[in-house]
UniProtKB/TrEMBL annotation:
Keywords: Methyltransferase, Transferase. One of its GO terms (biological process) is methylation. Residues 60-149 form the Methyltransferase domain. GO terms for molecular function: methyltransferase activity. InterPro entries: Methyltransf_25, SAM-dependent_MTases_sf. This is Class I SAM-dependent methyltransferase. The lineage of its organism: Bacteria, Bacillati, Actinomycetota, Actinomycetes, Streptosporangiales. CDD domains: AdoMet_MTases. It comes from Actinomadura vinacea.
Length: 240
């Protein structure tokens, strides 16, 4: 799962016993050599789905990490592109890789932007937010978008109960719950706390109009349904 340039087991253990922010600061120099970095196939499928909806003006990557999302934001957006994250270490890596973008350190549960962006994206970040925290996250993105702006992110279908992945993800989440019950500071990272119906409900409550698009290049499950969908949350346009 990890390349030779990736973190050692000892480094992963230290990260797991840290806070989320400190853990990612430690992991940042090696993050792109781990399976936690969003795969290029997911980024490319997202770009293909968004391209007919553009071009866009200014773009925002929410929880940008080391800046992988710039792979799609730069070609899709005609103006400034910005990444926001709370990890100093991750932002340092992003800034080095993409010096032409703007990078902002902030807690995305309290975004300070107001009607500044036409497109916002996010990749692999929802598991770092408890369900009770999603409304604040989505409300902040809603404020950050201009009227008519779009918030897009991929979401995977849950693996079937007969799949090894189902039990692996269940085991990981259970282990994290035990870890957070007995160790401080907590490290919030869960894989099973953001089902499609709950995410859709929270986005709708924030004011978005929500649709989805299948990311067919990423394959289909045995029942024919797509393995991934792209959430398309649109902020209503201002009436003329």
């Amino acid at each position: 799962m990890f390349s030779p340039q990736g973190p050692s087991l000892r480094e992963l253990a230290i990260q797991a016993l840290s806070s989320v922010e400190r853990g990612y600061d430690l992991l940042a120099p090696r993050f792109d050599h781990t399976p936690f970095r969003t795969a290029d196939s997911v980024l490319d499928a997202t770009a293909d789905a968004l391209r007919p909806l553009g071009p866009f003006g200014q773009g925002l990557d929410v929880c940008c990490g080391t800046g992988a999302g710039m792979r799609i934001l730069k070609p899709l957006c005609q103006e400034r592109v910005t990444g926001v994250d709370f990890s100093t270490g991750m932002l340092a890596q992003a800034r080095e890789a993409h010096p032409d973008a703007e990078w902002v350190q902030a807690d995305v549960r309290a975004l300070h932007f107001a009607e500044a962006f036409d497109l916002a994206v996010s990749f692999g970040a929802l598991g770092h937010f408890l369900p009770s925290e999603r409304p604040a996250l989505f409300a902040g993105v809603y404020r950050a978008l201009r009227p008519g702006g779009l918030f897009a992110f991929p979401i995977g279908a849950p693996p079937p109960i007969t799949s090894g992945w189902y039990w692996a993800l269940l085991g990981f989440d259970l282990a994290m719950r035990v870890r957070n019950a007995v160790w401080r500071p907590p490290f919030v990272m869960y894989y099973r706390t953001c089902p499609l119906h709950a995410v859709r409900d929270d986005l709708t409550a924030a004011g978005f109009t929500v649709t989805t698009a299948p990311l067919t290049p990423l394959g289909r499950r045995e029942d024919g349904s797509p393995r991934y969908r792209l959430i398309l949350a649109r902020k209503p346009a201002r009436p003329d």
